[in-house]
Amino acid sequence: MKFAELKDLTPHEMVVRSGDMRRELFNLRLQKASAQLEKTARLRTLRKEIARIETAISQRRKSQPAAV
Fold it and tell me: Which CATH number fits domain 3-60: 3.30.450.20, 1.10.3720.10, 2.60.120.260, 1.10.287.310?
């Protein structure tokens, strides 16, 4: 997923997608620990995608005016 694609998502969609990816990452780590993981590159890809989503969420929070 490209960063430009994230700009079209709502904040709620980003949080949901991040949660789904974190669950998938957890499951892949379990598979790796039990030597059942075949696609090890998916771990790295997921970590990067999660970081992109979290960065987009952070940028949106900073760009919104602070409520007093």
Answer: 1.10.287.310
